[in-house]
Amino acid sequence: MAKQSVKSRPEKAARRNSLDVECATRTYDYLMSVFQSSPVAFISLDSKLRIMLFNRSAQELTGFEGNEMFGRRVTNIIERSRLRRVILTLRGRDELSSDGYITKLRGKNGADIPVRVKVSPLIGKERKLLGVLVIATDLREVKRFQSKLLEAERLAAITETAIGINHGINNPLCAILGNTQLLLMEKDKLDPAIIKKLKSIEKEINRIHEFAGRLARISKPVLKEYVGGKLMLDVEQSEVSGSSPKRKKRKS
Questions:
Q1: 224: domain range?
Q2: Strand-pair category, 231-233 with 218-220
Q3: pLDDT means per 10 residues in the chain (252 residues)?
């Protein structure tokens, strides 16, 4: 019995080791599944700024495959001038912020991708710094939303200005137009030169009315360069509700 007991000890130890390996493998597979399934880009770097892990979201964000990025320097996707926070974290000098910071990644096609980056140190045994985890959130959709919001705010400002213009100039313009038309009703008694000037006044008043009306109906503003490099609203080329945008005249 004693011999059987002694003989079974190595078997029990081997079984325990096998279970430990199986448990470790399951834990590793589970953690890798979490890492790969994250909706945000995870990029794990070693202490020499080499890419060790590059999850699916990072691949979709940049266009690079994980196997082509493994072992490569992170400077392939982040310019050295933008790595200051990552380097400070490696040196233990950076105060971690929950908000992270905004920077740009370089995609496989060479395009800059705006991202919000958070950097977290990877700590091993005995508090040894092994590297950093870079978490990047794509800001392109946010930028597009901000652009649309800015356009909406600009359109609201134009509409408010147009209402103010209409309110401020309509009454005096109506009075001027009315008196001009009354004078033209007695054109038989007027000098031809005066009649010509009155018709010119009538035409310009109607033009102002049309301009103010179009300004109030602008749905998609178009800007053009003005004197001194400043931008001004191109009322004629801007789209208005209920009509198509005017085509620019070709220069002959």
A1: 144-240
A2: unpaired
A3: 56 72 83 87 92 94 93 91 78 66 91 90 85 90 84 82 79 88 88 91 89 82 84 85 57 44
The domain boundary, picked from 136, 154, 187, lies at 136
Residue 250 lies in a domain: no
Question: How far is the C-alpha of 15 from the C-alpha of 24, rounded, in Å?
Answer: 14
The domain tally of the chain equals 2
Among 74, 107, 136, the domain-final residue is: 136
Is this structure's pTM higher than 0.85? no
